Amino acid sequence: MLDINLTRRVILSDEQRTIVEVVVYVFLCGGVSVFGIVSNIINIIIFFRQGLKTTMNISFFGLAISDLCSLLNLLCFTIFLNPLVERSNLPIVSREFQYLVAGWPYVCFTRITSLITAFMTAERCLCITCPLKVKNIITPKRAAVVICSTYVIIFFFLLPEYATSYIDWKFYPPRNKTLLRLVFTSNRKSMEGLVFILNACLGALSYLLVVVFTAVLIYKLKRNSKWRKENNKDFSDQTSSRDNKAVTMVLLIAAFLIVCSAPSIVLSLVSFFIQEFSVLGVHSNIFFAVWSIAFFFGAINSSVNIFLYYKMSSKFRRSFKALFSKVRRRADSSAQRTKHRWTFVGPRKNTSKNYGADISSDNLSKLINSYRCDSFVLTDFPTNGNETSVKDDFQNSVSAEDIRLGLQF
Question: Would the pTM of this model clear 0.85, i.e. be above it?
Answer without folding.
Answer: no
